[in-house]
Design brief:
It contains seven helices and seven strands; from the N terminus they run H-H-E-H-E-E-H-E-E-H-H-E-E-H. By secondary structure, the chain is α+β, with helices and mostly antiparallel strands. It has a five-stranded mixed beta sheet, with helices on one face. It has a two-stranded antiparallel sheet with strand order 1-3.
Length: 231
């Protein structure tokens, strides 16, 4: 199986019940495929997992399933046909990821402000999964360093598409940090997800932590979108 075959895209469609059910089914299949991939990766490690390890893995599974539910709630209020504003959805993603892995107060989140980040519905779940994995890995790195951390999430329109950035302070990494070498399952899967979106993903260490930047080509014309929203 090639990495490009690993994740199933979500087909666009109308607001009909049939199309809605089709989209939900595809999104759940994406999560199931992702979990099978994680199962194979865990089997390669060949070690015994502690109770805490299993609890963390199950929390991550629950978070990914919850992303589908939160996405479809957002799709019930589109900003245009088959379009949604990514900003509130990504705030939901980050908040649930933090809540699933850390006690209250350990990780502070500065969410996306009122910025409009229009995205096609068939891209939203994969973007949400990428951001969720990045947030979960930032939380785990901070816990490994036994310190609190602060995350800042931004989303803006750029010439090449939508640019999403996650800056994490206090995550306990040095300038020599290499996500491919020092990361976990989350860093390997986000690269595959980004490939499905034909997106550019960079993860760079900075003085106090990491900055992950995702640029997703959307082909969305903001002026055209505003016109559709006023119609």
């Amino acid at each position: 199986m090639q990495p490009s075959d690993l994740f199933i895209g979500v087909e666009g469609g109308t607001s009909s019940l049939r199309e809605s059910n089709h989209r939900i089914a595809n999104n759940l299949m994406t999560i199931a495929t992702m979990l099978r991939y994680q199962s194979r990766e865990l089997a390669k490690i060949g070690t015994t997992f502690s109770v805490d390890d299993v609890r963390e893995i199950l929390s991550e599974v629950g978070h990914r399933i919850e992303l589908v539910s939160r996405l479809h709630r957002r799709l019930a209020e589109p900003i245009a046909p088959d379009m949604l504003n990514l900003s509130p959805y990504l705030n939901d993603v980050a908040e649930t990821a933090i809540d699933s892995l850390s006690p209250p107060g350990e990780v502070a989140l500065e969410p996306i402000s009122g910025d409009m980040c229009p995205v096609r519905a068939n891209q939203a779940l994969l973007i949400g999964l990428i951001v969720g994995e990045l947030v979960m890995n930032a939380v785990k790195l901070a816990r490994r360093a036994k310190g609190g951390s602060r995350l800042e999430l931004t989303c803006r329109l750029a010439e090449s598409g939508i640019e999403i950035a996650l800056a994490s302070d206090g995550v306990g990494v040095s300038g020599s940090y290499d996500p491919d070498r020092d990361g976990s399952f989350g860093f390997s899967v986000v690269k595959l997800l980004a490939g499905q979106l034909k997106a550019t993903l960079t993860i760079q260490p900075v003085a106090a932590g990491l900055v992950a930047r995702l640029v997703v080509p959307t082909g969305v014309d903001l002026a055209e979108l505003n016109t559709a929203g006023e119609a």
